[in-house]
Amino acid sequence: MTLRLYNTLTRRKxxxxxxxxxxxxxxxxxxxxxxxxxxxxxxxxxxxxxxxRLLRHLYGPEHVTYVRNITDVDDKINARAKEEGVSIRExxxxxAKQFHADxxxxxxxxxxxxxxxxxxxxxxxxxxxxxxAKGNAYVADGHVLFDVTSTKDYGQLSKRSxxxxxxxxxxxVAPYKRGDMDFVLWKPSxxxxxxxDSPWGxxxxxxxxxxxxxxxxxxxxxxDIHAGGIDLVFPHHENEVAQTRCAFGHKVMANIWxxxxxxxxxxxxxxxxxxxxxxINELLEARKFGSNMWHGKVLRLAMLLTHYRQPIDWTVxxxxxxxxxxxxxxxxxxxxxxxxxxxxxxxxxxxxxLNTPSAISILHGLGKSxxxxxxxxxxxxxxxxxxxxxxxxxxxxDKIMGYGVxxxxxxxxxxxxxxxxASRLEARKAKDWKESDRIRDELATMGIAIRDNKDGTTTxxxxx
Length: 464
Ligand SMILES: [Zn+2]
Description:
- α15 (414-429) runs antiparallel to α16 (433-445).
- The chain is an alpha/beta fold and 464 residues long.
- Helix content is 43%, strand content 14%.
- The longest helix has 21 residues, at 39-59.
- Bound molecules: zinc ion.
């Protein structure tokens, strides 16, 4: 079977041909650990997990190396630690642990390696020394900067000229920079910021060199696939490309560059100031967003309904629909299925640049067959497809719907609450205030708080 992937580097779909089929190598930029991961961060985690599963199927699980890093040295981390009055280590450990707990619920496989930037300071210094020796970087005022005019191919990935970049960027006009677009490889640290000894004094790396060094050490000077969110194309990936290519002298850093599209929430860009900022954790724990408890596999399927390169609109309606869809399929599979018996048409769909919408229409067909012609074969085909896509491990369909789970707030039955909220809305429409109050009190005794919105809807949440 031919795998075709869209390559940001060439702006077209290409046939994938690994450098070494016995070791297919992929790097995905991971989180900077200073805060809860938001739902936009979940997209590359889920999308490239599907690719990891597909590559494992095509080349054999032992022939795929997947690296997803953790950025645990960054100025955002330093600032947050100071704000909270905790040590940097405390903050990064806690956040990394939370990240792992959150994404575990999304049904993702563990990458082969998960390097932390702080463990690769040595290779970063080594690369910076090579770049200085080759004339691609210079030391100025305790900093080391990459000279973007030293390589004629700067802009190879984002397809922008230097002039366009300068015009479009909020350029940091530091006096020690030779050119506006030159970027930091190393910067000095004071007593308050974490620092490491280097030939340029005590300092810390810039963000871009971290990924260049970690991918080099785990995957080599050139590897097969480098991926991340589309917001990383410039400057992060462009700068990674410049550093790695100039240090090692190859035409490319990775043969295929893949980028997932943006995620917005209820039609708007997600931002803290708009109040529509949603973390994975809030969705899993019923603290926000329709105030239902969303099972991790529902979030996963909701993400895969849209092709990874398209923008995605994350809405409560999408999650409600996805939940009943997934619960139906799981109930229809009757506990059959093995992820190693994945139907070939599903592999075919995914091999066309991870066409998950097409994979999902195949699931629809398999679900229909399992219901209209109940047979072990049909149950098995549906169950195997669900398991291969990471949408089902051992959950029961009622768990997906939100009941049957133990502990804490999970004891709330969202379907019952929804129906009580609907009855109360009816009562209010009929101006039956007594009944409306009675239902509100009944909900309160269940530990549910409700809020009537200006647009006539009512939302509810579990009181913590
Ligand atoms: Zn990166």
